[in-house]
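Hey all, sorry for the wall of text incoming. These are the two entities for the joint prediction.
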Amino acid sequence: MRMPAAEAVPAGRLRRGLTEPLLPFAALALLAVAAAAADHAVLCWASVGALAGYSLSGSV
Amino acid sequence: MLFSPGWRAPVRQGQVLAVFSAGLLLGGTLTATVLWLLSGLTAPLPGVARAGLIIAVAVLGVAREAGWVRIPMPQNARQIPQEVLRARIRRGALRFGFELGTGVRTYVSASAPYVVALGLLLAHQGPVPTILTGTGFGIGRAATAATRYASRHDEWDDRRVTRMPLLKNAIALTVLVALVLLVVRGR
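and here's what came out:
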């Protein structure tokens, strides 16, 4: 079976996707919950701290 | 704005971002150190009571963020003056980042920072986890500036404004889930 040619993604769209404001939240949320589930208190608190910092996402 | 694409200062914007982020980390670390010192005041409380209070505070954080309850919280209702950036851009960015990183020098527009600060006071952990939480706070604040800088487009601010209500509620809920899990797993 022939694979369809890979569609080129314009750099602007890729950059826009990678800088989506929800992405850092998703990564930190996964880290915080996974660390809590693994009983890794230090990593969990640090991630929760980072989430708290990110919740103040003002314009800079 | 500090990280807008229309940057015209004679200093590279990436350098300013690095110095600003270092200031954020220092500020967050300092505040967490103070919280660690103050957390000794809650040490006489039994562990079960402290765990229960941490969860209760996190639940209130979710409710407050959702607008179900109105709980006025202390905040320094002022903006950090733009003049700190005018004289010397690198030193100004460091100071600006430091003041933002402390979390006590300007507005606090979300519930999660209060939940985490009270959680640290109640948890009364060792210095390393407490201080690293403050460093994490600085990293979280720096993530905004870094993402804004990487976007290279003013349109990013519109996306941020659109996502903020969802983001703040999701963060309050995630903090609650993580702290409940941590308390339950730690028993």
